[in-house]
Amino acid sequence: MKETLKYLAGVAGPSGFGSSSTADQVTEDCAFSFPSHLTAIVTGATSGIGAETTRVLAKRGVRLVIPARDLNKGHEVKERIQKECPNAEIILLEIDLSSCASVKRFCYEFLSLGLPLNLLINNAGKFNQNLEYSEDKIEMTFATNYLGHFLLTELLMEKMIETAERTGIEGRIINVSSVLHSWVKRDEFHFNEMLNPKRYHGTRAYAQSKLANILHAKEIARKLKARNAKVTINTVHPGIVKTGIIKGHKAFTGMSYKNFAFSLYSLFFLASKLLKSVSQGASTTCFVALSPSLVGASGKYFADCNESSCSALASSDYEAHKLWKQSRALLHKQLFQSSS
């Protein structure tokens, strides 16, 4: 109850920021602390939190690479940002995060540009009300929200480590998750079932993918530390934001979460003024990406621009390592099959 009241009041935490802070506010001083000419890849940058994250990073002098499934939307975002920031450098490349072949193609195109890579922001999120499969025959929400970002991170990791070694600037990877990860129970989190669910529910699939994002960051943080790499990875919860994802969640019904369904939908309707704005939703991502106070912080979970706690399942080293092994084996199989 105390935390809820602090959230609603926008009380600042140890970082000096809270739920009411905007992305512009939390990065105001970062431009003077971080070196210029950083390069960032931001997925899901054509709308919502991703578009705002991209705008604010461009405003702070960061070169942006936007992976877009819809290049027309990508051009619209680019034009809007360059109207505000005429000197912004923005590169558009095509990607479909649900497709292993497309992610691989994007990484090849990006690496062929010869650019450094300082920031990788795995922001894109998809909510499917009905069961749908990717071209790789994987449930679409899991394929897009988790596996696509897993593969993207795997294929760009060495570039980030090399950039950090060469420049001395810490690289940062950020996975955008959700508080809904805490709804997932251990007996509901089975890899093969998430790939091909026998009984599908959109909210469960979304929550499972967001739990997987946290476990991914936890395991990659351990591996980066073991390599003594100057690259960190953290997870953020943006809050409940007025974006397309919320509209997609209008039918929070079914599964063991059904007790939350009507009340949650009603809460969104009646308390919509309490939902975060897009700029407030992007604040934690931008803060974790640029704040000099977080140098060396890795494997953490942040909400409202402050370190927070995630569920016990999301904190499990065993589950994190098991999921990484299963994901890597699957993706290597998919890439091998597609190239044979």
From TrEMBL:
Keywords: Oxidoreductase. Gene3D superfamilies: NAD(P)-binding Rossmann-like Domain. InterPro entries: NAD(P)-bd_dom_sf (IPR036291), SDR_fam (IPR002347). GO terms for molecular function: oxidoreductase activity. Pfam families: adh_short. Belongs to the short-chain dehydrogenases/reductases (SDR) family. This is Short-chain dehydrogenase TIC 32, chloroplastic. It comes from Stephania japonica. The lineage of its organism: Eukaryota, Viridiplantae, Streptophyta, Embryophyta, Tracheophyta.
